[in-house]
Recover the amino acids of this structure.
């Protein structure tokens, strides 16, 4: 279980102070955060739970959220950034999640564009960003992050084999320091979106933490379906894929390795 008083104390100097909302069980922390955002909840509101009964990932894929087995958290962000910078937000969240996993477990996360957290070939987490724009600027965004922590087994029919931090590290990983590290990193990484100099470094830093965005033969799923070899990220965080017909700039969708 989480020690809520200790969490508040640890986050007292952050934007999340006084804005922690815990549920033993909820349908979806992202749905909770989106509803709160529309009702005026402040920047930095955090919604987290021990269980999600209707957890979801990108493309409305279900995210299995067993009781007290993973980290299920969504953060409301009110950032004054142009809408065109929105594609960088999932990448910033990925950088934050990778840093948190490293701090809490010593494990290195491989970032699979645009929103998957892998350890080796196995998926250990994912990111779902939902947002609402107002007159060409971001009105608010909700960054939902799910990380498998204690799970010991997974369904055999998953598109990408799954794993957990406990399985990969060979020891029990405490969710509380992981959550603290995640929120601290998320405050730092989303702050970079407001800095004209720092925002330009996000695609390069993602590329440095990923074996997927350059030189990987992939199949792209989604409206820009194609096959080819990844050729880096552009300044907007979009993935370039070299195909037989030329370079395609992938703005949305997912990728899977070929072979």
């Amino acid at each position: 279980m989480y020690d809520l008083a200790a969490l508040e104390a640890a986050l007292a100097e952050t934007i999340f102070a006084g804005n922690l909302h815990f549920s033993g069980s909820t349908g979806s922390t992202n749905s909770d955060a989106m509803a709160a955002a529309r009702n005026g909840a402040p920047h930095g509101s955090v919604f987290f739970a021990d269980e999600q009964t209707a957890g979801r990932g990108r493309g409305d894929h279900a995210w299995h959220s067993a009781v007290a087995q993973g980290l299920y958290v969504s953060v409301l962000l009110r950032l004054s950034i142009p809408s065109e910078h929105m594609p960088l937000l999932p990448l910033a969240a990925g950088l934050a999640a990778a840093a948190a996993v490293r701090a809490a477990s010593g494990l290195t996360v491989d970032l699979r564009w645009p929103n998957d957290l892998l350890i080796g070939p196995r998926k250990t987490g994912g990111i779902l960003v939902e947002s609402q724009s107002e007159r060409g600027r971001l009105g608010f965004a909700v960054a939902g992050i799910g990380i498998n922590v204690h799970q010991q087994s997974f369904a055999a029919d998953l598109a990408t084999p799954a794993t957990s931090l406990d399985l990969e590290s060979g020891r029990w990983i405490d969710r509380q320091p992981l959550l603290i590290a995640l929120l601290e990193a998320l405050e730092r990484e989303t702050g970079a979106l407001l800095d004209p100099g720092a925002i330009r470094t996000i695609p390069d830093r993602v590329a440095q933490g990923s074996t997927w965005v350059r030189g990987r033969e992939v199949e792209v799923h989604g409206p820009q379906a194609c096959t080819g070899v990844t050729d880096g990220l552009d300044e907007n965080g979009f993935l370039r894929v070299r195909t037989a017909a030329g370079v395609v700039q992938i703005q949305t969708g997912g990728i899977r390795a070929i072979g």
In short: The chain has two domains: 4-207, 213-257. The first strand starts at residue 20 and ends at 23.
